[in-house]
Design a protein that fits this description.
The protein has eleven helices and eight strands. The protein is an alpha/beta fold.
Length: 275
Amino acid sequence: MAGNIIDAHVHLSERRDDALIRFARLNRLSYTMSELLDTMRRYEVEHGLLLSPPLQGTTSLSNDQVISLCKRSDGMLAPGVTVEPSATEVKAAVKLAEENRREVKAFKVRLGYVKASADSPVFDGLYDYAESERLPVLFHTGDTAFSTGDLARSHPLTLDRLANKREELIIILCHFGNPWFEDAGELIYKHPNVYADISGLITGNGAYAEKYAEWLARKISEAIYFAGNADKVIFGTDYPVTKHSDALALARRLQVDERDKEKILRQNAERVFRL
C-alpha cells in the first residue's frame, strides 16, 4: 500500500476532562498534537479530519477549539464541525462553517450520545446547508464509548429514513455501524449517497485481540463484497481510540485487491472531502 493516506476520523483536545483519555492510556498514547503529527508522518498519513472528542459529562470540545487546533497542525488537520440537536447549535454550526468555508470539510452528528435521531427536524437547516455546499455529514453509528449511550438511535438502519428523504446529502456512517456491519453494507449498497468509515474498531490487546481483528476484517470484507465494490469505504483511526498501527493493520487484512485498498486509504476520502 502506498503512502499519502487520509485519516477521516481523528480526535484531539489537550484538555484534562477529555473523555477519550482513558482510551489513550489503554493504548499507551500521550494523546498530544506532537504525537499525533509525528505518528501521521511516520505512517505517511497526509491529512486527517479532526473531530471534537467528548468531554466528561454530556458535552464535546467546542468547534472553535477544533479549528484552532487545526491551525497549529502545519496543514495536516482539517476541521469537522460537530453539531448538537438544538436550533441554536445548528445555526451556530452553519455560521461557523460559512465563516471558515475554506477549512471546514464536514459536519458530525453524535448519534447515540444526544437525544435526537438522524431524521429529527432540528437538523433540517444543517442538512440544507450541507447539501448546498456538498459537505458530508458524519454520523456516529453502532456501539457507544459509554454504557449510557442510546443504541436505538445509533443503529445504522436509522439512517435509511434520512437517506430516503435526502438523496443529495452525503452521509458517512462512522465505525461501519459496529457491530451491525451487514446493515451498514446494505445502506452503502442501497443508497448512492451513503458511505462508511472503518474507524475506532480496535482498542487494546486482550486475549482475543488477534482473532477479533481477523473477524473484523472478514465482516468488513463481506460488506464490501455485498456492496459490489470498495468505492464508499473510507479509512479512519478514531485516534486515540485506535492506534494508527492497528487501524492500518486492519486495512491490510481486508480481503480486497490492492487497488481497492488504495481507494479506502486515500482516493475515496479525497473525493468525498475534496482534499
